[in-house]
Amino acid sequence: MLFDTHTHLDAIQFDEDREETITRALEQGVTRMINIGFNRETIPTTMKLAEAHDFIYAAVGWHPQDAITMQEGDLDWIAELCAHEKVVAIGEIGLDYYWDTSPKDVQHTVLRNQIGLARSLGMPICIHNRDAHEDVVRILREEKASEVGGVMHSFSGSWEIAKMCLDMGFHLSFGGPITFKNAKQPKEVLAQTPMDRLLIETDSPYLTPHPYRGKRNESAHVRLVAEAAAEIKGMSFEEIAEITTQNALGLFGIR
């Protein structure tokens, strides 16, 4: 029983074999997935996927790379969608200082507004953080994100940053990079992450785990992430699969 807590099955990379990809995930024991709608184009396609499959849930929000495109009314749109029974989180939201697509001040405003919405609705949030660790932690603190918690998606920070996120009640999610031989820091952080705060994901079609690195990722590969996590934690695959699934069900309020 595996739970891929972050995937993009509506991406164009799956246009030729989307249903086959979903079937392969089920065959590998993936019983639930959360698809991420992160801008004006992907939110509708995410909702369509979630409505078409009982085991696919949705997170909706505005990605920091697309922050500059957010218009008046979009926050209300997200709020309306959060009333849908298949929407379980607001995300992915956050900061991205790697890609120069949206000014930092715009990213900050969009992030703060969405945290405020999450607090008003009592929804967990899914945080995207690329090269912006200190600002992400600061804004989460200032906006009292600890009131709703959520997940630090594809966590890539140090243990010091991880502790700050854990102290605010967040879960840490790990994906393909923990299978890379040279990925020392993610493995060290995962090793120290409390078992009740650990999640796994693929971020497919991106961040493909070894031995498929360089090829398109897909939700079936979350099994490889679970196997790597089990090795790092010194546990069985079955234990990791069960614990991370139960953690996700609890965080996202899925029965």
From TrEMBL:
User: Which InterPro entries has this protein been placed in?
Assistant: DNase_TatD-rel_CS, Metal_Hydrolase, TatD-like, TatD/YcfH-like
Q: Where does a divalent metal cation 1 bind?
A: 6, 8, 92, 203
Which residues bind a divalent metal cation 2 per the record?
A: 128, 153
Name a GO molecular-function annotation.
metal ion binding
Ordered alphabetically, the record's keywords are: Hydrolase, Metal-binding
> Under the cellular component aspect of Gene Ontology, which terms does the record hold?
cytosol
List, alphabetically, the PANTHER family matched.
D-AMINOACYL-TRNA DEACYLASE
Q: What is this protein called?
A: TatD family deoxyribonuclease
